[in-house]
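If you are new to this repository, start here. Below is one unmodified record pulled from the training split, so you can see the exact layout before writing a loader.
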Amino acid sequence: MTFRTPRLTEIALPEFGMPDAMPEIPAQLYAERLHRLRERAAAAGLERVLVYADREHSANLSYLTGFDPRFEEALLVLGPEGDPAVLVGNECYGLAGAAPLPMRRHMFQDFSLPSQPRDRSRPLAEILGDEGVTAGARIGVIGWKTYGSPEQSDLPGYLLDGVRQRVGPNGSVTNATELLIDAGDGLRVINEVEQLAAFEWASCQTSQGVRRLLAGLRPGMTEREAVRLLDWNGWPLSCHLMLTAGPRASFGLLSPGDRPIERGDRFTVAFGIWGALSCRAGFVVESADELAPPIRDYVDRLVAPYFAAIAEWYATIRIGVTGGELDAIIQRHLGDPFFGIFLNPGHQLHLDEWVNSPIGPGSTIELRSGMCFQVDVIPATGTDYFTTNIEDGIALADAELRAAFADRFPDAWRRIEGRRAFMADRLGIELHPDVLPLSNLAAHLPPFLLRPDMAMTVAG
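And here is the target side for that same chain:
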């Protein structure tokens, strides 16, 4: 695949529009997800599945039930039939009752905050026994991650110990998280059209926020003043909101402070809510003339090779491509140690910012319809060149899924078509029909942040 040499040019980023309301996930869809999980659990020989969640890691439980615990932890117990049970503490007991999926609630006050009342719940062993976690049972536990051994899990030790004591030496407790997040066919990496539409809504919020920030960024404003331009709407964050300028920007992952932003600063921002993340990074200048002399070739040395890699990545991704093919593109363009690429060049996106990734050296996992990806390739040069970044979400959809999307969510579909046309006509990136760009920034990369109208392109 041949592209023109990337160049910096004046590009007007169109207004793709914003959704009027967030698409709802139908209650029936949660029941269908539970049914699919039950089928997979039965095929794996599991009699019960226990899904643990806390505030930081609520995506699996929220995907299955529409309930995400706040302040506390929670544990879902799923048997082969009937409504699932959920163990919740003092403050989540009422919240769980508002979930779109019916659940039988057990008050389990060890999930409550320190020093809160603990006089209204039964012992864990008794609750588990009533829910079928009995001697000799085969139990699958779903936490956040998979590990080298199926016996390892990130559930709290007291919960794992309690489950193991209940099933005894003739039972088994295994990590079943891959049923939901396996990079090739986990239930949560293959999204329904309703979920993709909700992700497009979320991506509109984050990308429009970052776009508003870039348009309003001015030297002299503090980081906290700058972050207000994102206009966060209160939807749950998928990662901590990050914005830093100056020396702190090189550390990444930091929250905004009170330091005034100065002309010439390094700058990075990342804004993620459930289903979306948008990031940009560069220098608070109008042109290379304002950079220190040794790095005035910033665009040629770092940004242009990076954009060439991203452009080919975008043009290659489609259903049936393997993760290894995408990884090879990044290694070919950015394999020099100078670029500092060491994480997976792209990963699956869901309610949580990083679900899993089929993209890595030699990966034979084929990408499938319904997968949603973060275009996440981060140079960590560790030099005065700092970094550049162009993170946004995309979805893959076959003809049937695309037709359903266009029919059921026509406004979102028009925005997607507008982004595809912009990427092809102005940025020179021809996307396969499978690829649905979800972001209103649509691969727009301005390296000099005080000139957001100057962006990279490989178009003729």
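Two things worth knowing about this chain: The mean pLDDT is 97. The chain has two domains: 7-22+187-457, 45-175.
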